[in-house]
Specification:
By secondary structure, the protein is an alpha/beta fold. The protein contains 14 helices and 16 strands. The chain has a domain of about 280 residues: TIM Barrel (Alpha-Beta Barrel), CATH 3.20.20. Helix 13 runs parallel beside helix 14. Keywords: Membrane, Transmembrane, Transmembrane helix. GO terms for molecular function: chitin binding.
Length: about 425
């Protein structure tokens, strides 16, 4: 009995005064719910804002990565000034050229050239605010031959690197292009080392100036296999932002007659051949720009070059070994009055053949330009490069180029060619 009593006493029972009040509990619950709702109301806009900023930053990054380039060369030798209508169509503008001097230094020394670059800078300030990059091409048609001896001489090489840095200080540019026409087999390593060392210098300049964005660096190559084969592309791609694939070459045009920049056709070296080779070899179509010339060429004392039955697009130049440039503005001259323009279906290019004068002319028109841009889109090429924007006097050619959508909607390095 005593055991039972002891057990009963060990059971703790709450009396009425010690039991929790339902009313008090409900009050606390409501208080907690109210606090939670207040936190949700206050935090929701902040969470939404942070999420929006995060998504926006990701979209901006993707847009920057996926943005197709429209690069325009601006020459020292033309007279036409830039217009805002032209500039708003570009992502990059490249001034040609800063010449390589005998001592290895590079500069823009000719008074006309200096005026041209300052005329350019006067009008580009608004376009730069919208993100357009300004660059200078170093080298060029006449002084590229000075690259090899400059790189072999330590003093000249020091002059080269210091003067490249001076271009940034003097002209407040965003980048440079190494416009080397064309490295030989013996120059392959020199070319690679130059690109690598220039990138290292640009990185040091960026850090010393406290800049957040890298300076832009680009190089050129050619659609002609015997010119393009002396570049270490996969190593170069580690250091450059893009490669401009020029689809014309003066040395070729002085020796041969045929379409200036054929999209397809011939036994080799069409634009399609070059872009497929470079894409399949590098696996980086996003770093390639397809070159589009805006000038035309005509040859005299020649035979008709095109023969589809023989897969022939060109013939050796006979008579005077001279190719004459023709501008869009020259269409009003007597030579071009009342002439019929023909279209070559295989190369996708227009031409003029005057049999009585034995004159053949190759050029671009709105149709061929649109097809080249569409080709770049279909094959997910990173952009186009226009040679040159100041050769388009009435802005019709640039308008044709930019009227075609470049964005493909694909991932930046999706490969559209059937690579072997």
């Amino acid at each position: 009995m005593s055991t039972n009593q002891s057990s009963s006493k060990s059971v703790s029972l709450l009396n009425s005064s010690e039991r929790p009040s339902p009313t008090r509990n409900n009050g606390k619950t409501k208080k907690y719910i109210l606090q939670f709702l207040i936190i949700c109301v206050v935090a929701a806009p902040i969470a939404y804002l942070l999420t929006s900023l995060f998504v926006s930053s990701i979209e901006t990054l993707n847009n920057e990565q996926n943005q197709k380039r429209v690069v325009g060369y601006y020459t020292v030798w033309e007279e036409k000034k830039l217009t805002m209508d032209q500039l708003k169509k570009l992502t990059h503008i490249i001034f040609m050229f800063a010449d390589v001097q005998e001592d290895g230094s590079v500069n823009i020394h000719d008074s006309h050239a200096v005026k041209r670059i300052w005329d350019m800078k006067e009008i580009i300030s608004m376009a730069r605010k919208q993100g357009m990059k300004v660059m200078i091409a170093v080298g060029g048609h006449l002084t590229s031959i000075r690259f090899p001896p400059t790189l072999e001489d330590p003093v000249k090489k020091k002059n080269l690197m210091e003067s490249i840095a001076n271009l940034f200080e003097e002209y407040d540019i965003d980048g440079i292009e190494i416009f080397w026409m064309w490295p030989t087999e013996e120059d392959k390593v020199k070319h690679l080392k130059l690109v690598r060392e220039v990138r290292q210098q640009l990185t040091s300049m960026k850090e010393s100036k406290g800049k957040t964005k890298d300076y832009v660096l680009s190089v050129i190559t050619s659609r002609y296999s015997h010119f393009r084969e002396n570049i270490y592309y996969n190593e170069i791609m580690k250091h450059v932002d893009f490669v401009n694939v020029l689809t014309h070459d003066w040395r070729f045009m002085r020796e041969y007659v045929g379409p200036l920049a054929p999209l397809y056709g011939g036994r080799k070296d069409s634009i399609d051949d070059a872009m497929k080779y470079l894409t399949c070899f590098t696996k980086q179509p996003s770093k390639l720009n397809l070159g589009i010339p805006l000038f035309g060429i005509f040859w005299t004392n020649t035979t008709f070059p095109i023969d589809d039955t023989k897969q022939r697009l060109c013939v050796p130049k006979t008579g005077e070994k001279i190719a004459y440039e023709v501008r869009w503005r020259d269409r009003s001259s007597n030579r071009w009055k009342n002439v019929q323009t023909s279209w070559h279906n295989i190369s996708r290019t227009p031409y003029i053949w005057k049999s009585d004068e034995k004159m053949f002319s190759s050029f671009e028109n709105e149709r061929s330009l649109k097809e080249k841009v569409d080709y770049a889109r279909i094959n997910n090429i990173g952009g186009v490069v226009i040679y040159a924007i100041d050769q388009d006097e009435d802005n019709k050619l640039m308008s044709a180029i930019t009227s075609v959508r470049l964005e493909s909607g694909d991932d930046v390095n999706d490969i559209k060619y059937h690579c072997e």
